[in-house]
Specification:
Blueprint: H1 3-6, H2 34-44, H3 53-71, H4 81-89, E1 114-118, H5 126-131, E2 135-139, H6 144-154, H7 165-168, E3 177-180, H8 203-214, E4 218-224, H9 234-245, E5 249-256, E6 264-265, E7 267-274, H10 277-282, H11 312-321, E8 332-335, E9 341-344, E10 347-348, H12 354-357, E11 359-361, H13 369-375, H14 388-397, H15 401-417
Parallel strand pairs: 1-2, 1-3, 3-4, 6-10
Antiparallel strand pairs: 4-7, 5-7, 8-9, 8-11
Helix pairs in contact: 2-3, 3-4
Length: about 425
């Protein structure tokens, strides 16, 4: 394999997953999960010689698909099975996959503890554990744009649809911690006292089935506050009951991002579970409230894209709505559905769509992509790899990173001290 062949980068792969030079990684195609297979092999194993014959065939197939698709934009690439085997045996030496490693938040080479990241989004739950040295051995996220952001920051393409056995089969047999910010769809069949079967047909069932099979030491689940009251509380009671049946002792609490130093009122239910009674007894949700501020979070207006500035019509409307109210800076102006406007030093909970239309920074413009990430606590070296519209959706679906960071420290302390 020539030196010229090795200079392949894939950081800026196309917006559309079906483009000529991009591997399709989900859906019913022959390329399903191949980039995920390849990136997670390089991060988590990388030892081609330790693989079974079947596993080697999967890796070689993934590399060949990768090379074939890159050849369409780089004709000098020599696509042969021999070259694919060379790349698998010596991936670092040949620098063929440098973009899997040159990222802001690389997977620790040797982690004391391991985790899987389900419904991973853009990695907000994983990030604090990454800081603590946890090694991610499997990740899954079905949305192609979120996958793109995840890949740009962690150098790892998440696997696709976790409801498919073809995806689940790549989960390692043993890992220490399961993370899941699972979506809360309508749990219409839950709460009928049928135990594990109550959750069939929901995405929580896939979480529960993975927990049942792999039995990690600890679990961390995150969801919207409304999960606790859905169907008069029966949905949440079923979730807690199933986790108990699976052998986990759990504690839960609704936490607010405002209490963790973020200027965003965002309430989420957090469920933490351990297999050992003494471990859950050592865990608590007692956190010291941290002050929040917009200072240092907002960008200068001259540095923000002009398309984010409100029209004269909206500005005039807001001026009338705030007449007689105290106006201060920096602030975020909120308009509710009734048309009432509040001027506050924090944002309402970011959502994928609606809330964005009611927020104005200092009464004149929408939040930028970087500001939206900051409102969720992502560091400034977190890469933006998708459009502003996608960042709006991704931050609206993500988590308050500082909140997870404090929880992660407590879980880590327990896993280290209560064997």
């Amino acid at each position: 394999m020539s030196k010229k062949d090795t200079n392949i980068t894939i950081t800026n792969f196309p917006e559309e997953i079906d483009e000529l030079n991009c591997i399709k990684i989900y859906g019913e195609t022959s390329y399903e999960n191949h980039l995920a297979v390849l990136s997670q092999f390089l991060h988590n194993n990388g030892n081609y010689y330790s693989l079974t014959k079947e596993q080697k065939n999967v890796i070689i197939s993934a590399i060949l698909d990768f090379l074939k698709h890159k050849k369409k934009t780089n004709p000098d690439i020599n696509v042969t099975e021999d070259n694919a085997i060379i790349a698998a045996e010596n991936p670092v030496q040949y620098n063929l996959f440098s973009d899997f490693y040159n990222v802001p938040f690389p997977n620790p080479i040797k982690g004391i503890h391991t985790l899987v990241d389900l419904f991973a989004g853009i990695g907000g739950i994983r990030l604090p554990f990454n800081e603590l040295g946890y090694k991610c051995v499997f990740s899954s996220e079905w949305d192609k744009h979120a996958q793109r952001t995840y890949f740009a920051n962690f150098g790892e393409m998440p696997f696709g649809d976790i409801t498919k056995e073809s995806t689940k089969r790549f989960i390692p047999e043993h890992f220490d911690l399961l993370l899941a910010g699972f979506p809360c769809q309508a749990f219409s069949i839950m709460g009928k006292m049928k135990g594990f079967d109550d959750t069939r047909g929901t995405l929580f069932f896939d979480v529960a089935s993975i927990v049942e099979k792999h039995k990690p030491q600890a679990i961390l689940l995150e969801n919207v506050k409304q999960l606790t009251t859905h169907d008069h509380g029966r949905t949440f009671s079923t979730i807690l009951r199933v986790l108990k049946e699976l052998g986990y002792h759990v504690k839960w609490k609704v936490l607010n991002a405002l209490d963790f130093g973020l200027p965003q009122k965002r309430e989420r239910v957090i469920i933490v579970g351990f297999r050992k009674q003494e471990q859950i007894e050592a865990f608590n949700f007692d956190f010291k409230k941290m002050p929040y501020t917009l200072e240092g979070l907002l960008e200068k207006d001259e540095d923000v894209d002009q398309s984010l500035f409100a029209s004269d019509m909206i500005l005039e409307k807001r001026k009338k709505q705030t007449m007689g109210k105290e106006i201060f800076y920096p602030s975020i102006w909120h308009e509710n559905k009734a048309g009432n406007v509040s001027v506050l030093n924090y944002a309402c909970a970011l959502r994928t769509g609606a809330s964005y239309n009611y927020l104005l920074v200092n009464g004149i413009r929408r939040p930028s992509s970087r500001e939206l990430l900051r409102l969720q606590g992502f560091p400034d070296n977190y890469r933006i790899a998708v459009s502003h519209g996608e960042i709006r959706r991704q931050t609206g679906n993500s988590v308050a990173v500082p909140m997870i960071r404090q929880i992660a420290k407590k879980i880590d302390n327990i896993l280290n001290n209560f064997k």
